[in-house]
């Protein structure tokens, strides 16, 4: 699996607004003031990649109103390509998340009724020149309903035709899926198309429609995927390749919130493997990026610079 470092990554998934009660530690019910941030797992991953020197273009839909304009402006301020971001009728709504900067009993309330990002179309996918990209990154929430689901599979097909690697963060969210059986069918189908899979216990269990997600992952590596990152929260992660399985720990930090770690990990890990760094070091870099983000307010705005992560790794033992 080779990456062309001279090219951008194509990132497919959601963008939205995250709203945080201020000051940190304030409960939503008690808040007087909020701060706003770019949000959504795909958009956050783009920001994390950018912080580590990797350019990306985002493929998503936003509402054709002031909120959609806010999203586009924020993406562009971070240096993320918006050529494949489409404004659609404002009867569809851009995701809004209200998130507490509190670790214990954290409240994260998402408003995703009639969500814009699930209106991806085949027409949008067909307009993309895949030869311009080094890889396709898929945020799994985009698989949860149509028409976005079919568009994800079309993008995957086009990436195969262009011979570029595919990466998926399973990114399971319970809303929008029609049934447990369909979740398993769709996840299994896409997982056999891609080269790198990132997910946690719950996501692999859901993909297998069982409680044996780790065994499922070990069997899955025998097919197309070359790398599987099986995350286990505070217990670390398992790096699964066709040659071996190895266990890796996490950094101990004084977290102020649980959100943003997965997107930060994506940016740190993917940017490292693209640069030809070893899998073990790439995983370490992703874990360090995630550890820093949970100590800060926000997700996109909390993403550390490349130098900050390097310094953090030197100063902390894993």
Architecture overview:
There is one protein chain. The protein is built from ten helices and 13 strands. The chain is α/β, with parallel strands linked by helices and 318 residues long. It has a single domain, classed as UDP-N-acetylmuramoyl-L-alanine:D-glutamate ligase (3-Layer(aba) Sandwich), CATH 3.40.1190. The chain has a nine-stranded mixed β-sheet, with helices on both faces. A four-stranded mixed β-sheet has the order 3-2-6-7. Helix 6 packs across helix 7 and helix 9 packs across helix 10. The radius of gyration is 18 Å and the shape is globular. The two termini are 28 Å apart.
Concise summary:
With 318 residues, the chain is of the alpha/beta class. The protein has one domain (8-15, 41-60, 117-315): 3-Layer(aba) Sandwich (UDP-N-acetylmuramoyl-L-alanine:D-glutamate ligase), CATH 3.40.1190.20.
CATH class annotation:
Alpha Beta
Proportion of strand residues: 15-25%
List SSEs in N-to-C order: EEEHEHEEEHEHEHEHHEEEHHH
Largest sheet: 9 strands, mixed
């Amino acid at each position: 699996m080779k990456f062309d470092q001279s090219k951008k990554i194509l990132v497919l998934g959601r963008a939205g607004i995250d709203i945080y009660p201020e000051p940190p530690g304030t409960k939503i019910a008690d808040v007087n003031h909020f701060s706003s941030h770019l949000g959504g797992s795909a958009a956050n991953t783009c920001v994390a990649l950018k912080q580590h020197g990797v350019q990306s273009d985002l493929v998503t839909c936003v509402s054709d109103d002031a909120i959609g304009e806010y999203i586009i402006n924020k993406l562009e301020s971070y240096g993320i390509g918006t050529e494949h971001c489409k404004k659609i009728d404002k009867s569809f709504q851009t995701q809004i998340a209200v998130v507490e900067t509190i670790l214990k009993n954290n409240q994260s309330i998402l408003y995703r009724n009639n969500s814009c990002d699930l209106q991806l179309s085949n027409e949008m996918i067909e307009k993309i020149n895949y030869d311009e990209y080094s890889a396709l990154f898929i945020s799994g929430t985009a698989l949860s309903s149509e028409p976005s689901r079919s568009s994800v599979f079309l993008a995957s097909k086009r990436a195969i035709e262009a011979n570029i690697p595919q990466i998926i963060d399973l990114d399971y969210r319970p809303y929008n899926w029609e049934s447990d059986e369909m979740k398993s069918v769709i996840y299994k189908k896409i997982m056999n198309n891609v080269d790198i899979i990132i997910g946690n216990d719950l996501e692999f269990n859901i993909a297998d429609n069982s409680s044996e997600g780790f065994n499922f992952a070990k069997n899955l590596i025998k097919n197309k995927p070359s790398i599987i990152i099986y995350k286990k929260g505070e217990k670390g992660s398992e790096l699964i390749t066709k040659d071996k399985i190895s266990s890796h720990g996490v950094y101990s930090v004084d977290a102020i919130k649980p959100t943003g770690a997965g997107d930060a990990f994506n940016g740190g890990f993917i940017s490292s493997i693209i640069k030809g760094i070893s899998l073990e070091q790439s995983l370490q870099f992703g874990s360090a990026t995630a550890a820093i983000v949970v100590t800060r307010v926000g997700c996109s705005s909390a993403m550390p610079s490349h130098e900050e992560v390097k310094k953090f790794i030197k100063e902390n033992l894993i």
